[in-house]
Amino acid sequence: MQHHFCPKSFPSTPKDIISDESRRKQILIVGAGASGLFAALSLKRMGVVNVTVLEASNDIGGRLKAVRPTSSDLTLDVGAEWIHSTDGSRVLNSMMEGLALDGDNDESNKVELITYQPKWYFGKRRSKLMTTIYKETKFKSATWYSWLKDNVYEKVKDNVELNSPVSEIRYNNKQEGGEKAVEVVLANGEIRTADVLICTVPLGILKQSIAKDRTSASASLQFNPALPIKLQEAIHAIDMPPGLRVLFQMKEKFYPDLTSANSLFTLLCNPNEMTLAYDATLGKDREENILAVVAIGNEHAGKRFGGMSQKKVGKEALRIVDDLFDGQGTVNLIGEPLVQDWSEEPFIRGTYTFPGSNRHRRTLGQSIGESGQVIFAGEHTSMKYYSLVPGAAYEGRRAALDAVGMMAD
Ligand SMILES: Cc1cc2nc3c(=O)[nH]c(=O)nc-3n(C[C@H](O)[C@H](O)[C@H](O)COP(=O)(O)OP(=O)(O)OC[C@H]3O[C@@H](n4cnc5c(N)ncnc54)[C@H](O)[C@@H]3O)c2cc1C
């Protein structure tokens, strides 16, 4: 079965299209995940020179993050991991289509992919149904993180400032005597100004910014004036549940390709809530045995792991492995589990957005400010491809075009 959870085409970003005046305008992008970096590259391609990406953490990628679970050179994604399409090369090519800069090498986007069609188990029972219908793509030795870094970040790295959390966005400023429409306050008190701001912070951060009790949320971002009520309602209405991934290095490969802790029936009824234990190196031709446990959703991650320390999360995930495989996890474990809990990331606060009403999602993607000078982008603003890396990239490209369109004379 062919399936593509990816836009068929991406917004075209014609080369050097804008006027000299627009070229000099200042654009700030908040967040250097897939959306923010695609926005920056699209603007560069269109000839905008004053673009700055402010990233709160000490690395780019956001929910794309790769780790080395052993002392070898193996790197694995602990955020986005799959290209949810049977034709991953087509997805990657179309994400990059029309974004070439002068001097780019056509070969740069080439990366080895593998077809991912695991044997599915539900507890101890094999499911022929899932094994037959489920097929998608994965990176062989690269990762989503390294792909974004090599293909997008490398081209805009001079525009990116790491360790620069934005604590306040002031918009609707009176534009007299060369004043800019937007002011951004960094956590260190520094103020930056811009004609247009593209805000790509995750929905989890927007939720914090409108929470009644903001005192506990040290990473919280404030909007001044407060976000419009309709937008606040949409932020509340769409869910971005907790989730985590734990990697275990094992002596023996005692586990099949993929085992679901949910029954087939419950997974088909609610494919968003899940706990899976799977061979993280399947098809990668590696010696290391790495077993991953992923738990996503309010029930599977929030209720089971919420409020635990990293050590306890590792222990609880090992308990799941032991339950599924008769204690083999504890017997085979080498070293400490590697835990990535996305709900605990101060600048992320969740995994990805779950479906919700189209009306609210449309509102999430609408610009605010008297002249629409604050533009929102990110996986959560995509109507059809929310929760996915290609959706985040699409929205970054769309936001870049909006920014230029708004500035057109
Ligand atoms: C466990 C997990 C598994 C997933 N699996 C897949 C998968 O297999 N395939 C797939 O396509 N997608 C998957 N996804 C979803 C995918 O990772 C996201 O949709 C995508 O990476 C979102 O990109 P983004 O740019 O919208 O947001 P982000 O990547 O979250 O980027 C937002 C950036 O904003 C920064 N930021 C936040 N607050 C501030 C601030 N105040 N100031 C400055 N910067 C700030 C953050 O640090 C971050 O870098 C998965 C996600 C998770 C968590």
UniProtKB/TrEMBL annotation:
Protein EC: 1.5.3.-
Pfam families in alphabetical order: Amino_oxidase, NAD_binding_8
Keywords on record: Oxidoreductase
Domain of life according to the entry: Eukaryota
InterPro entries for this protein: Amino_oxidase (IPR002937), FAD/NAD-bd_sf (IPR036188), Flavin_monoamine_oxidase (IPR050281)
Domain Amine oxidase, residue spans: 153-400
GO molecular function: oxidoreductase activity
Protein name: Flavin monoamine oxidase family protein
UniProt source species: Skeletonema marinoi
